[in-house]
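Anyone else keep sequences and structure tokens together like this?

Example one:
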Amino acid sequence: MKKKLILASGEVFHGTGFGAQAETEGEIVFNTGMTGYQELISDPSYCGQIVCMTYPLIGNYGINRDDYESMEPAIKGLIVKELCDLPSNFRTQMTLDELFKKKNLSGISGIDTRRLTRIIRNQGSVKGKIVDVNADEQTAISYLNTAESPTNQVETVSTKTAYAAPGRGLKVVLVDFGSKLGIIRELSQRDCDITVVSQNTTAEEILLMDPDGVMLSNGPGDPQDVKGAKEMINKILGKVPIFGICLGHQLIALACGAKTFKLKFGHRGGNHPVLDLEKNKVAITSQNHSYAVEQKSLENTDLIETHIALNDRTNEGLKHKIHPCFSVQYHPEASPGPEDANYLFDEFIEMMHQFKNVTV
């Protein structure tokens, strides 16, 4: 099944298709992880994107039932150098190709992923389309350069109805902007009583649940497109402890008067070093984001920068000067990736206990 990848900038890559035969299009980004392709495919933050894996061999340990981060993948496609069709792992249940066929996803293998990554690094993230080898290239290029980018990714991936993950400990409301199961897993391991709510849940509805804390999850797209989130955050700020991850981090910044901007090619992978400015320690982190908080815009806010990325010195963490609220740009729940930053969930637990003791 010969296919080709066409970029909006005019470059064309020829390769072999896998998964569904259907064409697919989206923003092309690259991920530097050596493993974790199953978690990546099922991460809602990749909604609308085609991911290029920089590690050359993908699929070598297959697909299993335990490593999904959501029920249904939101990714638009996958680009790999070499696709393994004979995985070797005791948990393997199917191949990557079989999963893509079941989920009606399209991928392409056998292309020069190093060259593609260099194009993205030089030009920034670009739109692309995986098509049949006989498809007209100029038609595809013209379409990619005129089609509007989606702005409703969070609405697409967020839960439509609230649901519970019961526990006997602290009561946490998790606002689902595209949450990974890893967040629920980390809170559940700390015996939290979790209620997951939709991205458009109001502050009044959240406070009626009488939570001990609120988590703002990760999610896809531009934080400016998430309507109502800033108002909700402002209304719960100071009334309940808040912990934000990735998109949740950006939304806290916007709610407090800071600004965000789109990175040239984003941060994606499980090998990104981050410096904790308060502890003067470095953690290797899992990341997946296109946008970042503008550091200069923090000057006239009540937010303090707590973490920075060592690769490009961009913001990676914030805390509020007055209220119990902190956030990080990276993923302390990992999945995939290292667990260096796992302690942040413990800090959130401690923050909730301290707030309860003060308000009782």
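And example two:
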Amino acid sequence: MCISNKMPALASLFSLLSLRGLLPPMALLLETVFILLFTFFTEYEDPAVMKNIAQTDLYTEFQDVNVMVILGFGFLATFLVRYGFSGSGFSLLVAALSVQWALLLDGFLFAFRHGKIRVGVRSLATANVCAASALISMGAVLGKTNPVQLMVMALLEVTGFMTHRWILHIFLSDHPTQDHPIQPIMLLHVFGAFFGLMVSWVLNRPGLEHRHEKDRTDRRTGLFATVGALFLWMFWPSFNSVLLDHEDKLTAVSSTYLSLATSTVASFLVSAVTSPRGKMNMIHIQNASLAGGVAVGVAISVADVPWVAMVIGLSAGLVSSLGFRYLKPHLQVVFKCHDTCGVLSVHGLPGILGWAFFILIRTLSPPNAQRGPSRLGNSPGQFSFILLVTLSLSLSLGALTGLLMKWSLWRAPQDRKCFDDQAYWEFQHLAERK
């Protein structure tokens, strides 16, 4: 009898020791490696170069992106009724880790000069944008993984996405340093979504095949998630324009705003029409209203007139809302892939839709209206090949990452402890009295 009473306590202690025994050493090891790499390979941007850049404007845009990554994605991940601490806290952990790794990889692959990486506001902004791809992937497995698994996933996802950027960067231009109107970095939505979906599919286990009792939301957590969606909505124009040349920024800001506005209206429309009782679903509004920013970001170089941006936003809002209403439930039942945050509907499908608009407009536009010579020419097949590369890399690397994350070494949470903060966080009101 005594032994049976001690079993739950021993199991709880083993779970605690597993987290304590894995998270601190891994975090310390990674930070030590990062500090050493920063010590030998980085330096701050030359002040003489900084004088020629409008640093005030660039810092403002960087902060806008930073707010999106930290506050926007963080609050948006708090929608689960018993996973608010983990949703926001693990988002901060993944973002902090991803930014450091992305800064180093971006420097080594694209800005390594004379043995050094120059760190400045622009490189920090680029790292933040790349870190968003890891947060998108995290959304597909939210609640079903522990922080150590998320750290492993973030490192591999950022590495894969940077490799994808480098491949497209070399492929797109006759000269690798030449600017091109195609922005491969904006394919982060497609890459991050399908990477995360493949990880979620590989990590699927019988205990999570049916809807988990804690995989739900309520009014309080829904309100916090709405705040996150509003932060993302407000600052998305900066996200799409921060890395563009000065003359293209204002057009990108205006196009993104118009696209977001039309996708928001579309999300309300579809949510009400498809509801059996004619009522709107706040989860649909939180997510589908952002689809316009995703789609127009992928097609930002061709969305240079207002009506085009609005058509892209309207289409993205419709596709995203319908995906949430009909596709997400079937994804789990038919394909055994549980997409916690609905990243397929928010980022994956709108990203593909934006690329389809890019192909269509780029193909139909006259040659003298196109910017930037490249090996691509004007063939839809060649543009489609870029999307195929993105999907192939994201799915294959996601599968490999999922297999690595399945190792028992990482001590994945038990089925009954998924979507629950108590497995990882201290709560004062639950403290034992002595």
